[in-house]
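[stage:ingest] chain + small molecule (zinc ion)
[stage:ingest] validated
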Amino acid sequence: MTRFLCICLALCSLFSQSVIAGRLPDSLKFDQVADGVYVYTGKIEDVFSSPYGLVANSTFIVGDKSVAVIDTGTSLRQGRLIRKAIRDVTSLPVSHVINSHVHLDHIFGNRAFLDDHPEFVAHKKILSDLQSKAPYYQDRLADQPNSLWYKGTGPVKPTLLIEKVTEIDLGGRLLMLEPHGRAHTLHDLSVYDQKTRTLITGDLVFEQHCPSIDGSITGWITVLEGLRTLPYDRLVPGHGRVLSGTEEIDKQIAYLSALTDAVREAVANQVDIYTASTTLLQDHRDNWKLFDAFHARNVIQAYKELEWE
Ligand SMILES: [Zn+2]
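[stage:predict] done
[stage:export] tokens:
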């Protein structure tokens, strides 16, 4: 009886939260963007303001023998919806869960794949950030108005750490994993599917969504200049639509370069960090969604990096 009551209360709570935040998501729409490459395009919203945190892109790639999934979303529930979408396409085992970087909207769905016993793959340098950030992320999710959606969500320790360009084989299908130097974070990992010339960048590339700096502004520009020369036919960014060509990378380089110049000038003119964060590059506002949520923090990150050059 007590157990029955608990289940009823949990269902009522979930129902009332779903009334607050709209209907509970029960599936994620993946588009096949190339032969065997499926992409879920997240909403352009801030992860902590978006009702279910369905904000980052996720990709899965199907080989002859197994499946790799790149980024699993913000919650155990989202991870399960991704797993369900994979099962709608194939019954092949999930051999690799690849984490593009530490941010929760990309890797907190990992636990949905534990029973598949895949390799959980990440950049070698992710570990210290994972250790320091994961508890903070879990606390934030527990404070969300619909915290029940995030129940059971948490990190999974990587089982395969990448320190140099590494090939993985899904059966007749090779993926090249490249660990990058300091850029969006200190441990970004990109994936290149040779068969369809598809490049999955995680948050090294943003489309529409204002980029957010959590690594190094100068390092990020260098990495983007390298990415734009790669022979891809399509590029899956961390946020926003699937791209072709280099236009969006160039737009992002232009923003980061202008920010670098503006911050260097502010430092030289002894403009303080707070004033800089509220005044620099305000004319870029219309170029990006979520500019007000991310730009001021970017200025502060860049200022802290560049002031001691
Ligand atoms: Zn990120």
